[in-house]
Specification:
single chain; disordered C terminus; binds coenzyme A
Length: 196
Amino acid sequence: MLRSFALADADDVSNLVSDYEVAKTTLAVPHPYPTDGAAGWIAGHPAEEDRNHTTFAITLKTTGELVGAITLIEKRIHLRAEIGYWIGHAYWGNGYATEATKAIIEWGFAERGLNRIFAHHFAENLASGRVMQKSGMTYEGTIRDCVQKDGRFIDTPIYSILRREWEPSNDIRVMKTRHSNSTVMGERSDLRMSCG
Ligand SMILES: CC(C)(COP(=O)(O)OP(=O)(O)OC[C@H]1O[C@@H](n2cnc3c(N)ncnc32)[C@H](O)[C@@H]1OP(=O)(O)O)[C@@H](O)C(=O)NCCC(=O)NCCS
């Protein structure tokens, strides 16, 4: 399920992102993770939504467990958006990032009227590149020394999907829109997504 984060998720978020395995290939997650970092991050989401930055909690349909997060950062003037995501280390390799990415692409085109959705990854983060490929995105090239992390410059391959390349899938349905307590559901795995 993709749903909005609540302050009650702060401890789970903290436990998941405190792991250096999650932090090392992202720019968004500091390491060591600050004690109140998760609560502050969650508290900031409504203001971020006003800037068309939407973050969904990724939870398991069966147990409700929080496994990760996915964000869509929109630039409305160009009807384009960038996706970012992380999955807790213990949950890697189950297809959760791919399913969440497909769902947010669906939501971005169907509900947000976007024209272009893209994502970058650290060149060494092959799993993330694989997620982008499996989500139907096309490799566009690699931006050299695009970001700096831990004192070194990192190349970032970039992938995108355009509205004209996207076809609504059968297995993922957008149930409602963001402002009416959105729900985006994947039917093939035990992942369930919604956002409010
Ligand atoms: C990248 C990340 C989100 C992937 O999440 P996930 O739920 O494990 O992803 P999925 O299970 O949907 O798909 C992973 C794919 O990568 C593949 N993969 C994993 N490690 C790999 C590696 N070292 N080299 C190549 N492919 C790899 C998996 O086999 C799988 O592909 P397959 O289905 O074809 O076998 C997760 O590792 C993560 O959160 N990393 C830390 C944060 C991060 O890097 N976020 C992305 C920033 S761009």
